[in-house]
Amino acid sequence: MPRCPPHAAAGAELKRRDFAAALAAAAAVSLLSGCAGSGGGPDQGPDRVVYHLSEGTAQASNGLRNIGNHLEVNPQARIVVVAHALGVDFMMKGASDRNGNKYEDLVEQLVQRGVQFDVCEITLRNRKLARDQFISYSKFVPSGVAEITRLQQHEGYAYLKP
Q1: Residues with Cβ < 8 Å from 93, sequence gap 6 or more?
Q2: What is the model's pTM?
Q3: Which of 16, 42, 118, 128 has the most crowded Cβ, counting Cβ within 10 A?
């Protein structure tokens, strides 16, 4: 069996390394160009974000403030708030924050800016709550966590939990 001269074997090894390096570089450029195009430019449309509230009124206050800030810099954002467990409390009639501000007024201002508020029906059942205990801006969904999943996986919503 003929043996390759040492310099030929080294050349073949160098060619394999060069090919691997070129392949890695091409993959990196491809990934970076994909990232550069997803920066929310005009052809990308508005942000789509689901805010997840499940921890009570303190979290709701933070979340509503975050949403206001979000809309201040991106007024076209499509925002859905999904509330379950203790996170539904701020959506109940008469609920106020620690400063006495009615959550209904804050929610109304955000609804006028296009925000949707979803309330989990499983939470209602488990906590023995009725739909008529909630403010009129409430949209009821069968399951809060299933709705969050659907929005993320099927509609491309980003996930935020304040």
Answers
A1: 104, 133, 134, 135
A2: 0.73
A3: 118
Which single residue is written with the structure tokens 């997840």?
52
Convert the chain into a string of H (helix), E (strand) and C (coil): CCCCCHHHHHHHHHHHHHHHHHHHHHHHHHHHHHHHCCCCCHHHCCCEEEEEECCCHHHHHHHHHHHHHHHHHCCCCEEEEEECHHHHHHHECCCECCCCCEHHHHHHHHHCCCCEEEEEHHHHHHHCCCHHHECCCEEEECCHHHHHHHHHHHHCCEEECC
Determine if residue 31 is left, alpha or beta; phi over 0 gives left, psi from -120 to 50 gives alpha, anything else beta: alpha
Compare 26 and 125 and report the one with higher pLDDT: 125
The tokens of 82 are what? 């999904």
